[in-house]
Design goal:
Elements (H helix, E strand, L loop, with lengths): L4 H24 L4 E6 L5 E5 L4 H23 L3 H30 L7 E4 L1 H26 L15 H5 L20 H12 L16 E3 L6 E3 H10 L13
Antiparallel strand pairs: 1-2, 1-3, 4-5
Length: about 250
């Protein structure tokens, strides 16, 4: 059964409070008379719950475990831990509460031979409260088994987009950018390439072959032109089409 966290915590808190109350009642039963002993019409003695050390310790431990159950049920807000701790503590309290009077009745008193002991109200009160704690422990176990812990999704804020609500956040890895390496030619090789270009006898402006006597060249890179092409190029921008240097007609 899926319930709201606050509702489940309230249910465990009520069961824990009931177990604590029953544990305190069981501890109070120690002050009552558990047995009476008759000495063949000579006299009568009363045995309370705290007369013997063993049942006293068992009953006090039962009351402590029951009180701890109530404390955890009221203060522990983790349902996963609460579903485990409450049944464990409550059944421990129930076992100790039942073992205390049964130990006194079945083991402790029979060790004194020749005594005629009669159960009194305190013994029945101790047994009744032990059975009641066991019943409340069963309720705690049922509540723990029927309460399923789920993660509730809070409503998304109004400014959240549909992509933010439905799609998980993914880590995007950008591809590595290839680094372009610029290779600079040494000055002697660059000069040799200029001479090769100039030696072709081809005008850098019009692309036609240059006949002898019509050649002009760029002083910066050595590119060759027709004289007429260079004069026109000087009027247009006065920049070498090869290196961008200034041309002089």
């Amino acid at each position: 059964m899926i319930t709201q966290t606050s509702e489940a915590l309230a249910r465990f808190s009520r069961i824990g409070a009931l177990i604590s109350l029953l544990g305190a009642t069981h501890a109070l039963s120690l002050i009552l008379n558990w047995f009476s002993i008759n000495y063949d019409n000579v006299g009568r003695s009363l045995i309370t719950g705290y007369t013997f050390m063993e049942p006293l310790l068992f009953s006090l431990a039962a009351g402590g475990a029951a009180g701890a159950t109530g404390v955890f049920a009221s203060n522990l807000k983790d349902l996963t831990k609460l579903r485990l701790v409450m049944p464990l503590l409550s059944f421990t309290a129930a076992g100790l509460a039942l073992f205390s009077p049964l130990y006194t009745y079945l083991i402790k008193l029979p060790s004194f031979s020749g005594l005629n002991f009669i159960p009194e109200l305190g013994l029945f009160a101790a047994l009744f409260t032990g059975i009641a704690i066991a019943g409340a422990s069963v309720l705690a176990l049922i509540a723990a088994m029927r309460t399923r812990v789920t993660t509730s999704m809070a409503p998304s804020p109004l400014w959240a987009t549909a992509t933010e609500e439905t799609e998980p956040v993914a880590e995007i890895t950008e591809p590595a950018v290839e680094t372009q390496t610029t290779v600079l030619e040494p000055a002697p090789e660059r000069e040799e390439r200029r001479m090769e270009t100039a030696g072709t006898g081809q005008c850098m402006i019009c692309g036609d072959l240059i006949s002898g006597g019509e050649t002009e060249s760029c002083r910066s890179c050595g590119a060759v032109f027709h004289r007429d092409c260079m004069n026109v190029w000087v009027d247009l921008g006065n920049k070498c089409p090869s290196c961008g240097g200034e041309l002089r007609g």
